[in-house]
Write a structure and sequence with these properties.
Keywords: Amino-acid biosynthesis, Asparagine biosynthesis, Glutamine amidotransferase. One of its GO terms (molecular function) is asparagine synthase (glutamine-hydrolyzing) activity. InterPro entries: Asn_synthase (IPR001962), Asn_synthetase_domain (IPR051857), GATase_2_dom (IPR017932), Ntn_hydrolases_N (IPR029055), Rossmann-like_a/b/a_fold (IPR014729). One of its GO terms (biological process) is asparagine biosynthetic process. With 627 residues, the protein is α+β, with helices and mostly antiparallel strands. Helix content is 33%, strand content 21%. The protein contains 20 helices and 21 strands. A hairpin with a 2-residue loop joins strand 3 and strand 4. It is globular, with a radius of gyration of 25 Å. The two termini are 33 Å apart. The chain binds 2-acetamido-2-deoxy-beta-D-glucopyranose.
């Protein structure tokens, strides 16, 4: 997982097309900067995401005889960058400045790379993502290098929709719309003097934005908020006051352009931000998330009979299994850098979703590698809630007894995690509820991978035996996470409630809402907490082809909430588990990470006195700045 950032200063930015309801549609005319953090604080936060290399590149832009000139400053930014008043004047013109920062966690390619990547035409890229398909690349190439090469061939079209004047070339939004896989990136296109930025249509990589305002007139993008507010001000993200928006926002998923022109306003260079549509029907469909077959009416069942006659005889489950397996296979691509014995780990609860991921990973990964299964518990060493994780690993061992499976038991005590809690508060920013914090801490500790394993391989009997507890730190750089399974297959308790209230249509609406806000509520937060350990989260249930296939399946085949919990919820995934010979897992009911790991209970005791008091106060959704 990489960390990327861009700081833009010295411009008057027209925001009217991206923030339509703001009263003043352009950035403030006076320069200002927050004193809460420095460029070095941003670098420090990014460095944790990308421990292999850190680089920056600064350029300045001058208006000159009706055009924009660029002058480049190699390497580090000049000291004057943090003092906007020092903007120097060239040929009587004003200057705008751009600072690109990139920290790299290298998982692909044969040679080490350093970001920002700069090509021979002067284009600049910082990139955090994985290309799994959609565009051409060879298995040994680094996808960042492939991207910089392909982006340099894009045409100069800036119009909202590609107008066909590019003679066979793609526009930048068109090209980015073709990528399958998670990404966030920032790109300087030299020929058009345009900054392109954005994140994938599903939001599987974090990108935060600070829109210019009176407090800080710069436009800033960063994978993660720097630690500033925790040091300077304990009300994180609320330096503006409780009712004002926080400093950083999740960037809504899209491609944006910021075009610089030579026009001046208030003695500053003017530039315009635009949001572009996804130019790929597949992505449009995934965002719309429309399902044709929602209700099992007699009329529907006839339609289904025509369309799904063969699938109904079992092909359907096989198709889902194949799509998931292909998704896991794509997500186990890595190069030889720092990979160790267990390159890919699974965030593991022993529940249905993580069992499916572990079993599929076993099928996709060379048998010589070990697989770490990471589990966090806040319930002390006794950890009765470890039971399903232990039962799960035993079932996996039965299924694949030649593989070395390491159940990494990570024991945590909330009361001893004071500084860690503050750190995670800063990582989840702009999320700010106790529920976010609890999930964030559980994910952050799991990704840290620092725990115990109990298993020892018994050479004589050629099997694993449980003998001693040994300290173990997982070094897997790739972490498979089950996000998206509950949203798409009706795994949450409230799905059942919705179904009881308003039947199939209501259930479908609720699931659609879940999928359309998952970037805002979950994915950015989860990405930031996991990446802070120098690890990369990959989400096989959120593969473009998996989502598309699941949407084509009638809702009543996905879940049937007339049936009891542990049967009807995520019905389709239970069928997949059976096909993988995971009999026990196929029958497990859902337990959310914050309850399963008991962090919610511990947090309620700590912050509200007791679990009961906390429930009465709706603790999960309470904001923690009040403390
Ligand atoms: C650890 O395992 C238990 C079940 O044994 C589960 O409830 C809990 O959510 C798991 N923790 C994580 C972080 O997956």
């Amino acid at each position: 997982m990489c960390g990327i950032a861009l700081i833009i200063s010295g411009f008057r930015i027209d925001l009217s097309s991206v923030i339509p309801d703001s009263t003043d549609c352009s950035s403030p005319s006076h320069e200002s900067e927050t004193i809460l953090f420095s460029v070095d604080d941003i670098k420090a936060a990014l460095r944790k995401r990308g421990p292999d290399s850190l680089g920056s590149k600064s350029i300045s832009l001058h208006a000159h005889e009706g055009g924009i000139l660029r002058s480049s400053m190699e390497g580090e930014e000049p000291a004057s960058l943090s003092h906007p008043k020092d903007n120097f004047v060239l040929n009587d013109s004003l200057v705008g400045k751009l600072l690109f920062i990139g920290a790299t966690l290298q998982l692909r390619g044969v040679f080490p790379i350093t970001q920002p990547l700069v090509d021979k035409s002067g284009n600049i890229l910082v990139y955090n993502g994985e290309v799994f398909g959609g565009i051409e690349f060879s298995k040994s190439s680094n996808d960042a290098e492939v991207l910089v090469e392909s982006l340099s061939k894009c045409c100069n079209c800036l119009s909202q929709e590609h107008d066909g004047t590019c003679s066979g070339k793609y526009s930048v939004p068109e090209f980015l719309s073709k990528i399958k896989g998670p990404w966030a990136l920032i790109y300087w296109q030299e020929s058009t003097k345009t900054i392109w930025f954005g994140r994938d249509a599903l939001g599987r990589r974090s990108l935060l934005i600070h829109w210019p305002n009176i407090k800080d007139s710069r436009l800033m993008l960063s994978s993660v908020a720097p630690l500033y507010a925790v040091n300077e001000n304990s009300d994180i993200g609320y330096e503006n006051g409780l009712n004002e928006p926080s400093f950083w926002e999740e960037l809504p998923c899209a491609v944006y352009s910021l075009s610089t022109g030579a026009q001046k306003i208030d003695e500053k260079l003017m530039c315009v931000v635009k949001r572009h549509n996804w130019l790929n029907p597949l992505l449009q469909e995934l965002i719309q998330w429309d399902r044709t077959l929602v209700e099992p009416t007699p009329e529907n069942l006839i339609k289904v009979h025509k369309m799904y006659a063969s699938e109904l005889q079992g092909h359907l489950h096989r198709k889902v299994l194949a799509a998931l397996k292909e998704s896991v296979r794509r997500r186990t691509i890595f190069s030889k850098f720092h990979m160790g014995n267990s390159p890919v780990a699974v965030l593991f609860s022993g529940g249905l979703d993580s069992m499916i991921l572990a079993a599929l990973l076993n099928e996709c990964l060379d048998p010589k590698y070990e697989i770490d299964l990471l589990n966090v518990s806040f319930d002390g060493k006794l950890a009765p809630d470890r039971i399903s994780a232990r039962a799960g690993v035993n079932e996996l061992r039965k299924m694949a007894n030649l593989r070395r499976w390491n159940l990494v038991e990570i024991d945590a005590e909330l009361s001893k995690l004071t500084s860690e809690t503050k750190h995670v508060m800063s990582l989840i920013n702009p999320s700010n509820t106790y529920m976010d914090l609890n999930i964030g801490i559980a994910l952050w500790l799991a990704a840290g991978g620092d725990g115990w394993v109990r298993e020892e391989f018994d050479m004589n009997n050629n099997k694993y035996s449980e003998c001693q507890h040994v300290k173990y730190k997982s070094v897997s750089r790739i972490l498979l996470v089950g996000s998206g399974a509950d949203e798409q297959c009706a795994g949450y308790g409230r799905h059942r409630t919705k179904y009881k209230q308003s039947s199939w249509i209501g259930l479908n609406e609720e699931m659609k809402l879940d999928m359309q806000r998952i970037w805002k509520r979950n994915l950015g937060r989860d990405d930031r907490c996991i990446a802070d350990n120098g690890k990369e989260a990959r989400f096989p249930f959120l593969d473009e082809d998996v989502i598309r296939l699941l949407l084509d399946i009638p809702l009543w085949e996905i879940a049937d909430l007339r049936q009891p919990s542990g049967v009807g919820d995520k019905k389709i995934l239970r069928e997949v588990a059976k096909m993988l010979h995971l009999q026990e897992a196929a029958g497990l009911p859902k337990r959310a990470i914050q309850f399963g790991s008991r962090i919610a209970r511990e947090s309620n005791r700590k912050n509200f006195g007791s679990n009961r008091a906390a429930n009465q106060a709706s603790a999960g959704s309470a904001l923690f700045h009040g403390q």
